[in-house]
Design goal:
mainly alpha; 11 helices; globular; single chain
């Protein structure tokens, strides 16, 4: 199987999972949708940002990833365990990287300019998981390329990790209602909606917490876990900031 087929299958599987979540959260919502915020216009805006980034992927993101994989000089990787254990270790390390990258996006003003577009969404559902400014996507690809080049992650590990991150982002942004006991057990290992919704709470202390992407234990390990409990009426977004139109969001990071 060549790289184009691998990427195609990955895209089909992830998109299918996101569509399933989209339908499920409308059938079994955890919180009541505020009609004044969760409008079709909002959905169109989020999906437009996703389409913009999808167009950039084969032009910028994928070439950067392939270049980093092909140019990697980390010969010491040969001593790592092979097979499934090696892939599992790769995913763990890549998730650790994305934890710190996410945290940096909240701490460094230049990165926050772009990441802020994601947090201006005033409601959460599956479409929030793909609502990112193209500038953040490009910067993330460049930094991830450097990490791949340094540590020498094989292409299979990177593609599996990307698939898991996209699927998990859809899951923990979703408004799907889970049995309380199931979510409590899942949250001990992976990031669930009850954890990530707090990250989108308008309280700045909660926004600057719960940075995990796949595994929830990074926030406990690095003391960035919020003690806030998700509530159905929890206000989402940024305090004293309104969401903007599509073109305004695209230009927002470049304004003073």
């Amino acid at each position: 199987m060549d790289i184009s087929e691998l990427v195609l299958y990955k895209s089909i599987l992830v998109l299918g999972f996101l569509v399933l979540l989209f339908a499920s959260e409308r059938k079994w919502p955890a919180a009541q949708r505020p009609d004044a915020i969760a409008t079709s216009r909002r959905l169109g805006k989020n999906l437009s940002l996703w389409l913009c980034n999808s167009a950039l992927s084969p032009l910028i993101v994928l070439p950067i990833t392939l270049f980093a994989v092909n140019q990697s000089a980390a010969n010491w990787r040969t001593v790592w365990p092979g097979g499934g254990w090696g892939v599992a270790l790769d995913i763990l390390l890549l998730d650790l990287w994305i934890y710190w990258w996410h945290r940096a996006n909240h701490r460094l003003p230049l990165l926050w300019r772009f990441h802020r577009v994601h947090h201006l969404d005033q409601w959460l559902d599956v479409t929030s998981a793909v609502r990112f400014h193209f500038g953040e996507v490009v910067l993330s690809a460049l930094v991830r390329g450097a990490v791949i080049l340094l540590i020498g992650f094989p292409l299979l590990s990177v593609i599996l990790f990307e698939s898991l991150v996209l699927a998990m982002a859809g899951f923990h942004h979703s408004n799907i209602r889970l049995p309380a006991i199931l979510e409590r057990w899942l949250s001990r290992v992976i990031v669930t909606p009850s954890i990530h919704w707090v990250h989108h709470h308008i309280d700045q202390r909660d926004t600057d917490s719960n940075y995990g992407a796949i595994f929830s234990f990074w926030d406990r390990l690095f003391v960035s876990r919020s003690e806030k409990i998700r509530e159905p009426t929890m206000p989402i977004g940024l305090n004293q900031a309104k969401d903007e139109g599509l073109w305004s969001l695209l230009l927002a990071p470049f304004r003073r």
